[in-house]
Amino acid sequence: MTSQPTGVGRQWAEQLLSQIKADYSLPQLKHRPAFENRNGVLVCQRCQQVATAQLPDGRHYCRQCLVFGRLVEGDQLFYVPAQAVTLNGAKTAKLTWTGQLTDLQTKAAQQICDVIQTQQTHVLTAVTGAGKTEMLFPGIALAMQNGQRVCIAAPRIDVCLELYPRIQAAFEHQTIMLLYGGQTAPYKDAALVICTTHQLLNFYQAFDVLIVDEVDAFPFQDNPVLAAGVKQAVRPQSALIYLTATPTKVIQQAVQTGAMTTSELPLRYHGYLLPEPNCRPLRGWQQQLSRQRLPKRFLQDCRRCLAQQRLLIFVPRVADLQPVQQVLTAWLPDVALLTVHAQDPDRLAKVAAFRAESVQVLITTTIMERGVTFQNVGVLVLGADHRIFKTATLVQIAGRAGRQKAHPDNPVYFYYQDYTLAIQRACRQIRHQNQKGRRLKCDV
Q: CA triplet 250, 255, 256: central angle to 5 degrees?
C-alpha cells in the first residue's frame, strides 16, 4: 500500500486545509500569517505583492496569486517545514547518463558544482544548443548525494515537458516529480522536482538547490510574483542558479554589482557556430495572405529548404496560422503540415508528431521559440518585424536550427517589411556570440 505524501516543503491557503489533510499525512504542520503589515500596507506572504482588493466586509485579499487559493486578511498560510521529513533515496542518487561532456562543458559543470557547494547565486549564460541541461547533471547528482533537495523550474510547460524525460533518463533510479498547471498526476514527495515557475508559489523554503531555466522568457521576465516565488521556494542557505542564452538587464546588473557570479559558454556542444540569420525584405505579404497567396520568394525558399530538412515556420499571430497553412498546402501538396499555438487542445500531440518526424512542416507562434529541440530543422520567421518578435525571441527562434552535429548549418530566415531594431540586435548578438566562439576554439 502506497503511503500518503507528506507535503514536505509545500504550502497551502487556509481554505484548502481540509482538502489537503485528506491527501497528505502532514507531519509537523506549521503556519504563519498570510499577510504582513509593512508601513501601513498589507503584503501577501505568498507572492510578496500589496493586497489592495477588498471583500464586501472590508477585509483585504490578494488578487495576484488567487489561482493558488484565496488569501484573506486574517488568514494563515500552512506549510510543512522541509527539515521535518527525510526524503528517501536522495543520498543514493546515481547519475545513469552515459554521455560525455566536452572540455568546455566540463568546466561549466564544475562551476555549477562549486556554486552548489558554496551556496551562491549564479547565472550560466550559454548559447542555444550548448547543452545546458547535460551540464547540470553532475551538480544535481552531487546535491542529492549530499542529501539536498533540487528543483528545476522553467516558465513554460513545453520546456518542463522537454526536460522531464531527459532528467528521468539521467537519473533512472530516482523519483522525480513533474508539476505544472492542469496536470492530473497526484503529487508525490521527491528529492528532485521539475516544475513551471508558477508552481514555485506552492513551496516554502523547500529546496537546497533551485535552477531556473530560460529566465529571460515570458511570463517569468519582469514578473514580480514569479520572482517572489523563486525567493520563497529556496531554503535560507541554498544555491540559486539561473540559465539563459540572452541575459536580462537585471541579471547583467546583478553580475556587475557582484550580487551574482557568472559563467559563459559561447559554443554549442558540437563545436559549430550558431547559424546566422538571412534577412530578407518581403513587401506586402500580409495583403497577399488575405488573398490566399504568399510571395513567391518565400514559397521558393520553403521548397528549397525542404529538400534537405524539415521546417519550423513562425508567424506573429494565431490568426496567421491557418491562412499560411492553406497557401503552403496548395504550393506543397505532398508535404505534411500542422499548425500549433499555446491554446491548441492538440498542442502536445502535434509537437510529438513533429518530433517523431511524421510531419515535415510545423507552423507555429512564439510558443515554440525556446526549450524544444527537433532533429534537422530549418527556421523561417514570417513577419519578423512584428512587435511580438523581440530581440531575445528572435535569438531563441534562430537557436532552434543547427542543434545536431550532423546538421549544424540548418538555415535561418527572417522575413520582414521593416528592418526593425529587434532584428538588427538579434543578428548582432548572434554574430557577437560566434566571434566569442571562434576565439574560444582558437584558444582550446
A: 95
C-alpha cell at 367: 510558443
Residue 357 to residues 48, 277, 338, 341, 368, Cα–Cα distance (Å): 45, 24, 12, 19, 16
Examine the pLDDT at 151 and tell me if it is beyond 80: yes
**C-alpha cell belonging to residue 342:** 499555446
**433 grid coordinates:** 556570440
Is 412 strand, coil or helix? strand
- 366's grid cell: 512564439
Give which of 189, 129, 140, 183 is closest to 161, Cα–Cα. Answer: 183
| C-alpha–C-alpha distance, residues 115 and 139, integer Å | 9
Above 70 in pLDDT, residue 370? yes
CA-based nearest residue to 339, from 331, 330, 320, 357: 320
Q: Which amino acid is at 214?
A: E
The per-residue pLDDT for 90 is 57
Is 80 exceeded by the pLDDT of residue 194? Answer: yes
Where residue 262 falls (left for φ over 0; alpha for ψ -120 to 50; beta otherwise) is beta
Query: What's residue 1's pLDDT?
Result: 44
Residue 120, Cβ neighbours under 10 Å: how many? 14
Q: Is 100 exposed, middle or buried (0-12, 13-18, 19+ CB in 10 A)?
A: exposed
What are phi and psi for residue 284, nearest 5 degrees?
A: 70, 25
What CA–CA distance (Å, rounded) separates 210 from 205? 11
Query: If you ran DSSP here, which 8-state letter would residue 265 be given?
Result: E
In this structure, are residues 369 and 316 in contact, taking their beta carbons and an 8 Å threshold? Answer: no
11: left (phi over 0), alpha (psi -120 to 50) or beta: beta
Beta bridge partners of 61: 53, 72
| 47 pLDDT above the threshold of 60 | yes
Start-to-end CA span in the chain (Å): 56
Q: What is the pTM of this model?
A: 0.90
User: Cα–Cα distance between 97 and 167 in angstroms, integer?
Assistant: 9
